[in-house]
Amino acid sequence: MDFDALLDPVRxxxxxxxxxxxxxxxxxxxxxxxxxxxxxxxxxxxxxxxFNLEKFGLGVxxxxxxxxxxxxxxxxxxTYALNVxxxxxxxxxxxxxxxxxFKNTLVGKGFFKMAVKGKSFNPPAAKANLAGQGNxxxxxxxxxxxxxxxxxTGSREQGAWGCGREGP
Length: 168
What we know:
Elements: H1 8-12, H2 14-18, E1 20-32, E2 35-47, E3 50-60, E4 63-72, E5 79-90, H3 91-98, E6 106-119, H4 123-129, E7 131-143, H5 148-153
Antiparallel strand pairs: 1-2, 2-3, 3-4, 4-5, 5-6, 6-7
């Protein structure tokens, strides 16, 4: 299936070619999958088949996430770019929220950056045209051991968490 060609009716529509719009989001907090997400702010614009995520930000795991990006549908093959920045996410909170049996195993603050750009929504062309770069670092990184047998059996009788802390 040619996903790029599916956009031809959008490109040929005179109203959509000239349409503009702005979507702004401001939310104090929301809970998703038992995770508190705070200070959600976003501004998205659309002008003549170019969609811009001008700003996006939120707080999660005591850190901040920011993003910006663009999708341009004007050409025969759409182009897109995305930048994501994670600052100071508490890895202990992240692991505990999604993998409770492994809480207290990974400690530190995570910092991640990623930038990607590409062309086409068709998988072969999208893979060939995708370019990206990024980096990550963890401050105060520490791995603590656990007793896998205790996790597997759910036993709480012995202090099986190798880090000397009580388990889940």
